[in-house]
Amino acid sequence: MNDTVIRVENLSKKYIIGHQKQERNTALRDVIANQVKSIGSLINPKAKTENPQFEEFWALNDVGFEVNQGDRVGIIGRNGAGKSTLLKILSRITEPTQGRIKIKGRVASLLEVGTGFHGELTGRENIFLNGAILGMSKVEIKRKFDEIVAFSEVEKFLDTPVKRYSSGMYVRLAFAVAAHLEPEILIVDEVLAVGDAAFQQKCLGKMEEVGREGRTVLFVSHNMGTIEKLCNRGIYLKSGQINCNGKIENCLNSYWQSLENSVFYQPGTIFKLENRENLNKFSILEITLLDEKESNKAVVRTWDYLRIRIRFFCPEDIPKGGVDLCIHTFSGNKLMHYSTKPLSGLDMSLTEGDSYTDCIIPCLPLASGNYRLSVGLSIPRSKWLCWEEGIATLEVKEKDVYNSLVPPDQNRTPIAIEHYWEIPATVK
E strands along 20-155, which residues? Predict the structure, then answer.
């Protein structure tokens, strides 16, 4: 039995981008010349005339994949990779330039704030309108109505035209409608970021529930931890083409690795702010790995001494500030959190201009593999001044600290704590 619900074949989408010419005074000769060109094109339509004001941009280029029933697919990639364009084509909002798609089942989409809603209609009326668009009967919509209202938390404003809703209210109602009217395929873009944290968690829980029920979810997000938790499959888009398609872990690793390969650093330097022009906010400037002699450390191994030097910029003095460093997996699972205050008890002031501080790890407890670093400046127990999520990669080279015959990539935990065993001489 074929359980494929989405098949995409040779899909491409082209846009024409206009470039604004530099403003200048238009002389009479320019007007005459343009008119002559127009007449010439009418006389000889086959004549090729170059127009530097426009260029072709392929948002998607020869994309093909299949999605099976019950898959929860995370679509990842940098800005401009083609993620939103792909979802719009799958939702039949945008027509492809080439290729074709086959979809089996009812599709509900949540792509942009306001998509699918009529601003002049009330929340109540829009629920019935969206249900009708999905092909549901009035009886079916009524059966789900109370669940939708309870989930969206907009009962007080149910009879208010949605054009008066805030963006958060809009998203709450739109997601509740899309998820509860039982579509076979649910497509959700980054729009959930508009909602508050509590509602985002509720939405993710609902999407997990939808997946467990055997329905299909396509989800775009820049939050890799959320993608890893929710999705079992991934599609990594890069410059309009598929770079990786398969298990979500493989796609996330390919994504992070490609980011690192796009920048060259000196040995020991794992992050450096490339552009400091007009810098006027709290920022992380550089992260460097050092050894016991404070020399650049090109290779890091399990149980090594490691000094992580964090250089940063402050636009003003902060009498009681702090620096935080978090080490986590590529998928977003936090492993360790180091802090100048309160964890270490170090009192420090953040002074205006460039400064640095070192986080010293006498025995690095990480097994071989790649890990992400997140770094931030804060006023402890008060507020974050800046927080850079996944700003750099820490690569730990293989070192068989267990002295075993087990391959390093099998049955190993990411943490390898230094420890000792002993056999007591006597047991009381």
Answer: 54-68, 72-76, 98-103, 107-110
CA 182 to CA 214: how far, in whole Å?
11
8 A C-beta contact, residue 363 and residue 305: yes
Quote the CA–CA distance of 309 and 294 in Å, as a whole number: 9
pLDDT exceeds cutoff 50 at 366: yes
In tens, the pLDDT along 269-318 reads 888 887 777 788 999 999 999 999 999 988 888 889 999 999 999 999 99
Which parts of 90-175 are beta strand (E)? 98-103, 107-110
Angle 290-334-302 (CA atoms, 0-180°, nearest 5)? 40
Are 181 and 156 within one domain? yes
Neighbours of 139 (CB within 10 A): 7
Examine the domain organization and report whether 250 and 348 are in the same domain: no
Q: Are residues 149 and 182 in the same domain?
A: yes
Q: pTM for this structure?
A: 0.59
Calculate ∠ Cα 332-231-329, nearest 5°: 15
Structure tokens at 342: 């309160």
Using a pLDDT cut of 90, give the percent of the chain over it.
Answer: 29
* Same domain, residue pair 273 and 256: no
Q: Is residue 66 helix, strand or coil?
A: strand
CATH of the domain at 193: 3.40.50.300
For the chain, what percent of residues have pLDDT higher than 70? 81
> What's phi and psi for 97, nearest 5 deg?
-80, -40
1: pLDDT strictly greater than 50: no
The CA-based diameter of the chain, rounded to the nearest angstrom, is: 107
**Average pLDDT of span 104-121:** 78
Q: Please state, as a whole number, how many other Cβ atoms lie within 10 Å of the Cβ of residue 113.
A: 15
pLDDT of residue 290: 93
333-343 per-position pLDDT tens digit: 889 999 887 66
Beta-sheet strands, E only, within 248-382: 269-272, 283-290, 300-301, 306-314, 318-328, 334-339, 348-350, 353-361, 369-379
Contact 219, 74 (CB under 8 A): yes
